[in-house]
């Protein structure tokens, strides 16, 4: 009984989502953390899986109205690539990679809720 209670206590701090795969339910547990964003360009590490659309990263920033742009330096091309929620079609930073170092530029304070790794 005590062992089962300990298991429940461990699960209490996790956000669980349910996914269907081949007709059976799989429980996926994802922990998150929040990062305070200041009204400047904040140097932040992204923790989403590689290939995550930047729109998903943007959706994790509150308030989204304070976000101006996200910038990443492409060392191979020796230039910055950016994503702007105001101009997503013209943005050349389309996806995030796990452990990308980016600058999240804000005009006001905000929060980023990212996956915990």
Briefly say what this structure is.
With 117 residues, the chain is mainly β. It contains two helices and eleven strands.
Query: What can be said about the biggest beta sheet?
Result: 4 strands, antiparallel
In the sheet with the most strands, the strands line up as 4-10-7-8
Report the total helices.
2
- How helix-rich are the residues, as a percent range? 10-25%
Number of E-state strands? 11
Q: Distance N terminus to C terminus?
A: 30 Å
Strand percent estimate: over 45%
Instruction: Give the integer mean of the pLDDT values.
Output: 83
How large is the radius of gyration?
Answer: 17 Å
Please provide the ordered H/E string of secondary-structure elements. Answer: HEEEEEHEEEEEE
Query: Uncertain runs with pLDDT below 50, 5 residues or more?
Result: 1-27
Shape: globular
Question: Which structural category fits the helices and strands?
Answer: mainly beta
